[in-house]
Write a structure and sequence with these properties.
Largest sheet: 7 strands, mixed
Strand content: 35-45%
Order of helices and strands: EEEHEEHEE
Shape: globular
């Protein structure tokens, strides 16, 4: 059972990057907002840097994202944390299973 937030079901999203995993929770529709921003608008929520997002692919409930390394954003988790929070997802330490997965990769060649 997913946690309730103000009477609305929350979405639990597991984010994997660099061999690490973190869990985020947001209200229903948070994953859709992320998928739309990344796949259709080709932007990371909270960033206006051109060229930061290389590509994003959606397959059912899994989103794969390739982020270009840039000097002003040297840490992949810093970028991901800002993007998740700007999409309305925040760190979650509960025991609910993840409904969605985001796999993020850093492109060092860009």
């Amino acid at each position: 059972m997913l946690p309730k937030t103000s009477g609305h079901a929350a979405e639990i999203i597991m984010v994997r990057a660099g061999g690490d995993e973190r869990i985020y929770a947001g209200l229903g529709g948070t994953f859709t907002v992320l998928a739309d921003s990344l796949c259709h608008q080709q932007t990371l929520p909270g960033f206006d840097s051109a060229g930061l997002l290389d590509s994003a692919f959606l397959h059912e409930k899994r989103l794969s994202v390739i982020i270009c390394k840039q000097p002003e954003f040297p840490d992949l988790w810093t970028v991901l944390d800002v993007a998740m929070k700007n999409a309305g997802a925040f760190p979650y330490s509960g025991k609910s299973p993840s409904e969605f997965v985001i796999e993020a990769y850093l492109d060092l060649t860009a």
